[in-house]
Every structure is written in structure tokens, then in C-alpha cells.
Automatic annotation (TrEMBL):
<dbReference type="GO" id="GO:0016491">
    <property type="term" value="F:oxidoreductase activity"/>
</dbReference>
<feature type="domain" description="Pyrroline-5-carboxylate reductase catalytic N-terminal">
    <location>
        <begin position="2"/>
        <end position="92"/>
    </location>
</feature>
<dbReference type="InterPro" id="IPR051267">
    <property type="entry name" value="STEAP_metalloreductase"/>
</dbReference>
<keyword id="KW-0560">Oxidoreductase</keyword>
<dbReference type="InterPro" id="IPR028939">
    <property type="entry name" value="P5C_Rdtase_cat_N"/>
</dbReference>
<protein>
    <submittedName>
        <fullName>NADP oxidoreductase</fullName>
    </submittedName>
</protein>
<dbReference type="Pfam" id="PF03807">
    <property type="entry name" value="F420_oxidored"/>
</dbReference>
<dbReference type="InterPro" id="IPR036291">
    <property type="entry name" value="NAD(P)-bd_dom_sf"/>
</dbReference>
Length: 226
């Protein structure tokens, strides 16, 4: 698979490196050509270039820039992103007094302003946006085949488009992980909020996975006991 990456930071390097190891062709794009070249060399990507070049490169395009600027970038690159699956891994987060908090993307305090994925989709309406890869810390993607307690890492994603869901699933499986479909893009805010929650727990020294044990009964079963 050919994948363009918009950004040169930690998530761009971690995910790009995972895709290179999985055998995909990756082009790292950034406004700073030197930073793009450095990131590409660090992860073993064969190509680097500008943001527009990365947006046009392949079937999938990763948005790995701060959530607050992602919609503006998507609007700038909208013609190049048309008919491509756009992978949004951004998390709209800021430090708070008691830990990280969701922050606004749209400049208001409404809940809708938190939803980076929805704003990217509105900015590039001909793209197929998928919210994915934002729940885990970037260090997880540096592991060869992430697995925990004997099970492959589950990667939740949200999208409104069947072709995007199929591409994301193929990409996740190629990384040795299990795709976890979580509904349409209207549910992407739940993944963004989950990421902020988990990061806050980690920062406090806890384990977020301990808050989500498997149900004691089979899915769909009803306990009729009083």
C-alpha cells in the first residue's frame, strides 16, 4: 500500500516506521523539507517531500499534525485528498489542572468543536476520513507486532465509508493488530475522549485497561435474577 504522511513529528515517525516494517511504501511530507528528509531517513522510508506531494502520493494519507491545525491543512489540501482515505490520528488535548482535557478545534466551547475528525471531513468533503490510531501512545507503534496478554492489539476506528473501513482493516492487519470497527464518524469524538481519558490515567500512574474488564456474562445475555 502507498501511504502519504502529513507531518514529521512523533506520531508520523512511529506509524510511518510501523508501515515500513509491514512492507508498505511511505512518503513523509512536511513544510520543512529538512525535517521530512530526517524523519524519512529515521524510519527507513524511501521518499520524502512537501505536504501536497504526500497528500497525492497513495491510497491512504495520515494526518499527523496538531489537531488544532488539521482542519485548516485539510482545507488547503482538499483537492489532493479527494477520493483518498484520510487517517486522522489527532487528539484535541491540552494540559489541565487535574490532567489533560479535551480542547476545542473550532474556536468555540461547543462539544462539536472537539471533533477533529468531523472538521477534517468538512474541510475535505471529497475525502474518506477515518478516525484511527489516536488512542495509543506513539511508543506502542514502535513495537514490532503489538500484543498484550496474549492477544493482538485492537485498533478502534470510525468512518462513514465502506472503502475506508476496508482499507483501514487491511492496514491494521498488516501491522499484526486487530481492526475494531466502532461506527460512523459521528462517534469519532468518543475515541478522542477515550484517548484523553487514557492519557490522564497513565500520567497519574494508573493503568487504563484496568477500567475496562471483560463482561462476566456472554454478550447479549440477560441476567433475570432479582
Amino acid at each position: 500500500m502507498r501511504i502519504g504522511i502529513l507531518g514529521t513529528g512523533a506520531m508520523a515517525a512511529a506509524l510511518g516506521g510501523a508501515w515500513v516494517r509491514a512492507g508498505h511504501q511511505v512518503l513523509v511530507g512536511g513544510r520543512d523539507s529538512g525535517a521530512a528528509a530526517s524523519t524519512a531517513a529515521r524510519i527507513g522510508a524511501a521518499w520524502h517531500g512537501g505536504l501536497a506531494e504526500a497528500a497525492r502520493y497513495g491510497e491512504a494519507v495520515l494526518v499527523a499534525v496538531p489537531a488544532q491545525v488539521a482542519p485548516e491543512l485539510a482545507a488547503e489540501l482538499a483537492p489532493a485528498l479527494a477520493d483518498r482515505t484520510v487517517l486522522d490520528c489527532t487528539v484535541p488535548m491540552a494540559p489541565g489542572a487535574a490532567g489533560p482535557v479535551l480542547t476545542t478545534v473550532g474556536g468555540t466551547d461547543s462539544v462539536a468543536a472537539w471533533l477533529a475528525a468531523a472538521r477534517i471531513a468538512a474541510a475535505a468533503p471529497a475525502a474518506r476520513v477515518a478516525k484511527v490510531f489516536g488512542v495509543c501512545h506513539e511508543s506502542i507503534w514502535t513495537l514490532p507486532r503489538p500484543a498484550f496478554e496474549g492477544a493482538p492489539l485492537a485498533v478502534p476506528f470510525c468512518t462513514d465509508h465502506s472503502p475506508a473501513a476496508a482499507l483501514v482493516s487491511e492496514l491494521v492487519i498488516s501491522m499484526g493488530c486487530d481492526p475494531m470497527a466502532c461506527g460512523g464518524l459521528d462517534r469519532a469524538g468518543l475515541l478522542e475522549a477515550t484517548a484523553v481519558f487514557a492519557i490522564g490515567v497513565w500520567w497519574s500512574g494508573g493503568e487504563a485497561r484496568h477500567a475496562f474488564p471483560a463482561p462476566a456474562i456472554a454478550p447479549g445475555a440477560i441476567d433475570d435474577e432479582p
